[in-house]
Amino acid sequence: MPVLRECATVSGSKMMDESKKSGESLRGRVALVTGAAKRLGRAVALRLAEEGADIVVHYRSSAGEAQSAVAEIEKIGRRGVAIAADLTSVADIKRLFDEAAKYFGRVDILVNCAANFLPSSIISTTEEVWDASLDSNLKAPFFCAQAAAPLLRRSNGCIINFADTGGLLGWPGYIAHSVSKAGVVMLTKVLAKALAPEVRVNAIAPGTITMPGDPPEWAADFIKLAPLRRTGAPSEIADAVLFLVHSQFMTGQTIILDGGRTL
C-alpha cells in the first residue's frame, strides 16, 4: 500500500507539472530558428511561440513569408522579428546573432533548420553542388552554434540541429547531401561535448515529411519502405523539437523520426 500511494503521488505531481507546462513552458525564452519563413522551420517556430517563446525568424530571401510568420507569432501573443542572413557567410551569421541579441537581449534556443536538398550522384556531383550542400547543411550550423554559444551559456540554453535519414542511410543520388547530414550527426556529438555542461546539443533526423502542396510521388517510395506506412507531419517534428528543449538530461543524441524507415 505505501508503494501504491507513493506512485499515485508522483503520478499526480507529474501530471500537474505537465499541465503547468502546457502553453507556458517557454515563457520568457527566446528561440532563433533558421529557415523559419516556411516549411518545417516555420512549423517549429510557430510551435515554440505557442509554448510561450519569443521568436527570431531567420530567412535568406523569403521576406514576405518571414513577415507573415512574424504576424502569426504576434497573433499568438508572442514577440517576433524577422532577420535576413546568408548562412554561408560567417560575417552574416555573426550579424544575425548580434541583431537578435540587440532586439531581445538574449537567445535561449537555437534550432538549425535551414538546409538545401540538392541531387548529386557520383557522375553529376560538381564542385558547386558539393560546396553548396556542405556550406548550407554543415558549415552554417557550426558557425551558428559558435555565434550563439556565448548567449546560450548565459541561460543554460540548447541547440537542436536538423539532420535527416539521408545522413544515416546514405543516398547515392544525393551524395553531397548525405555526407553533409552525416556531418550534422557528428557535429551534434562534438558540440555537445564542447559546450557542456551549460548548453545541451541534440539533433533530429526526419524521414519524409509531407508538406501542403508537395507532389504525392515524393512520398510514395518512402511509404512503401516505412513500417508505419505513412509519412510524417510537420507537427510531429515540432513536437520532437519541444521534447528536446525540455529534455534536461539528454545531450549529443540524434532522434530518428522516420516511421521506422531506417529499420
Question: Can you put this structure into words, describing what you see?
Answer:
The chain is of the alpha/beta class and 263 residues long. 52% of the residues lie in helices and 13% in strands. Helix 2 (39-50) links the parallel strand 1 (30-33) and strand 2 (54-59). A 7-stranded parallel sheet has the order 3-2-1-4-5-6-7, sandwiched between helices. The protein has helices spanning 2-21, 39-50, 63-76, 90-104, 127-154, 166-169, 175-195, 217-225, 234-246; strands at 30-33, 54-59, 80-84, 109-112, 158-162, 200-206, 254-257. The protein contains 9 helices and 7 strands; from the N terminus they run αβαβαβαβαβααβααβ.
Summarize the structure.
The protein is α/β, with parallel strands linked by helices. The chain has nine helices and seven strands; from the N terminus they run H-E-H-E-H-E-H-E-H-E-H-H-E-H-H-E. Helices cover 52% and strands 13% of the residues.
